[in-house]
Amino acid sequence: MRAVVLREPGRPVGVEEVELDPPKAGEVLVRMAAAGVCHSDVRLADGELGKGRWPMVLGHEGAGVVEAVGEDVAHVAPGDHVALSFVPACGSCRSCLSGRPNLCEPAGRSALAGVLLDGTSRLHSNGTTLQHALMTACFAEQTVVAAAGAVKVPAELPLWQAALLGCGVVTGIGAVRNAARIAPGDSVCVIGCGGVGLQVIAGARIAGAAAIIAVDLNPDMLELARSVGATDTVDASGEVLAAVRELTGGGADHAFEVVGSPATIRLAWGAIRPGGQVIVVGLVPRGVDVSVPGIEFLSDKSLRGTYYGSGDAARDLPELAALALAGELDLAGVITHTTDLDGVDAALDRMRNGEGGRTVVIIDPDLAGGAP
């Protein structure tokens, strides 16, 4: 089958013919319809998430149709439409039992190692084992995932839109619902209006935030931010803090950093009022430290992280799909580019340059369901 392979950082990724083993017990074979290109793909391709994470089949945000299931898989069957989750929670580790399946320990270890839950890979190329990007490896015509990584979604939702659910949407809206717990009337500042930042804005709108201030360098992204719910926009090259404080009467209740940079995390810290909180959604490269003025903790400010929406993908993905079908969540509107597998490297470059919202890779046009 054809798949996008990262051979080593610093080299363009490319499409290769690779071999895929059939699913084992507790696994699912999915024919991919479409996949989203995420900033985490850039971090992996650029070697910023640790050494040795290559060769690898990239892609971790996608949707498709189940082709086959291994033994002991009962929640999906061939023909089902599924969105992929890159945290297939085991349900029995300390994190899962404490109600935090997004921090599932076996899934975390396997994702870091580039393998499935049994510690092995299903991907090979000319005798060389390939890693699975975040247990998903969905920039490919087919993929094998852990059973909990295939989450059934309504067939009425086109798969080229459902492809966004499993990372950008669940991460952004989950950060609003589960990490920040925004209440109606709250004020929100979102720094970074890429694919995930736009979902944070949409989530804040759905939650009833009164002021939603979008901050970005790209005027096109600020326009997109308004289309999904931002009430105000601020050019990041200007006096951001003065603008946010004026718009909120002294600082936002919540600031979301969706870039993954120490400078923008510090900016978010300055944008909140006493008693406010910063939620760091952006993926900071390994080895990079972040600092804020310690004296300001006396003003009861808080700084916290979030991973994968701080929720439960098995529960949340179907709920988010239902919001999209009800017209409350516009998935198509944040997609600025579509391409095929051969266009993934160019899509990564666009993301490095801060150009456009989400790129969706149309892998099987017939299954994808009428993408533009």
Describe the structure.
With 372 residues, this protein is an alpha/beta fold. It has 2 domains: 2-164 and 331-368, Medium-chain alcohol dehydrogenases, catalytic domain (Quinone Oxidoreductase, Chain A, domain 1); 172-306, 3-Layer(aba) Sandwich (Rossmann fold), CATH 3.40.50. 29% of the residues lie in helices and 26% in strands. The chain is built from 12 helices and 19 strands. The protein has helices at 39-45, 94-97, 105-113, 159-162, 165-180, 195-207, 219-228, 240-248, 262-271, 313-325, 344-352, 365-368, and strands at residues 2-6, 14-17, 19-20, 27-37, 56-57, 61-69, 81-84, 123-125, 128-132, 142-146, 150-152, 187-191, 211-216, 232-235, 252-257, 272-280, 302-305, 335-339, 358-362. The strands form 3 sheets. Strands 4, 6, 7, 10, 11, 18 and 19 form a 7-stranded mixed sheet that branches. A 6-stranded mixed sheet has the order 2-1-5-9-8-3, with no helix packed on it. Strands 14-13-12-15-16-17 form a 6-stranded parallel sheet, sandwiched between helices. β13 (211-216), α7 and β14 (232-235) form a beta-alpha-beta unit. α5 (165-180) packs across α6 (195-207). The longest helix has 16 residues, at 165-180. The protein is globular. The mean pLDDT is 97.
What low-confidence regions span 5 or more consecutive residues with pLDDT below 50?
A: none
* CATH homology superfamily name of the largest domain: Medium-chain alcohol dehydrogenases, catalytic domain
Q: Can you tell me the overall shape?
A: globular
Question: What Rg, in angstroms, do the CA atoms define?
Answer: 20 Å
CATH classification class of the largest domain: Alpha Beta
Number of helices: 12
Number of beta-strand segments: 19
Structural class: alpha/beta
CATH topology of the largest domain: Quinone Oxidoreductase, Chain A, domain 1
Average per-residue pLDDT, rounded, comes to 97
- Strand fraction equals 25-35%
Main sheet attributes: strand count, strand direction, barrel closure: 7 strands, mixed
Number of domains: 2
Percent helix range: 25-40%
